[in-house]
Design brief:
The protein is mainly beta and about 350 residues long. The protein contains two helices and 35 strands. The chain has one domain: Pectate Lyase C-like (3 Solenoid), CATH 2.160.20. The chain is about 10% helix and about 45% strand. The longest helix has 29 residues. The radius of gyration is 26 Å and the shape is elongated. The N terminus is likely disordered.
Length: about 350
Amino acid sequence: MRRRGRRLVAMFVVLAGAAALAVAFVAPAQGKRERRANPGNLGSVLGDAHGGDTILLASGDYGTFKGAAKKSMVTIKPAPGARATIQVELSSAANLRFQGLTIAGAKIRAPAHDITIARSRFTAAAQIDAANMVGADILIDRDTFSGIDVCSDCYEGRVTVHGREGQSQPVGVTVQNSLFNGGGNSDGIQVGAYGVRVLHNEFTGIHMVDATHTDAIQLYGQSHTIVRGNYIHNAASGIMAPDGTSHELIENNVIRTDGRPSAITIGSDDSSIVRRNTLPGGRCDYHQSCGILTIDAGNEGVPSRGTVVEDNVLGGLTVGDGSQLGAKRGNLIGRAARGRHHGVGAPAGVGPIR
């Protein structure tokens, strides 16, 4: 019996030692580390980083950075007190979060996925090529796009998401909680892909400054877009979509334009929903009334069909060119929209979260 007991004790010691070795082996991979980088070694530091790590950048200009594909999220941000500028061109990169940086332009395309740019200041436009993306989880969050100009033959948005015809699944791109301001000759956001989400952004000071047409939000070549909770003011136009829309959801936005009478323009629509938006009236250019929702045949010349317009506060509603609504209910329009109202057209959580 004593020999058996000794054998059991010995086995327990061996197993316990093996378990300890296993824990010692696994623990470093599970830990989170802070790594430091400078403009000369960021690539190699990222190569050594593991999921959960944070790379702290020294002050400097990091030039064009192509990133890397990581198995789980790695954060890249300035070290305390540092200021870092970087231009990102990401195609094969994955699981990267850029935070608190000056972004001197961004280009992102498939197969890149799980990319976040947050709390950063853009000094040049962001272009997301979503033609081959499905559920890519590309996130622009709490960023600032101030006074950005684009060239005459470039995409027109400070953020542009462009796709391809025939897309049938959400590309997985979200632009949220961000500020678009400070002049410049570019649109705020231009959307041309399936299922892009534009959420809780603020647009202000966006007017034409040259021959480039500028809108706060332009929809062009897209479908199934979600435009929710945005605050557009001191801008020539709000949501501009005269080139065809399909199954868009435009809700809980506040839009106060001072240029075009139409705050939301929808052309050649198929079954989109416009609800709980506030488009205050007043006077625009040429002494015309503002705050109008326009639904017509647009540039395609095809009358809109099935558009649902409900629970909005509108300066006016224009349905033209033989277009027919799917439903119109609960709206306050023109004179009826003046004054204070409860429960109709009073969006909650509008604008960016600072």
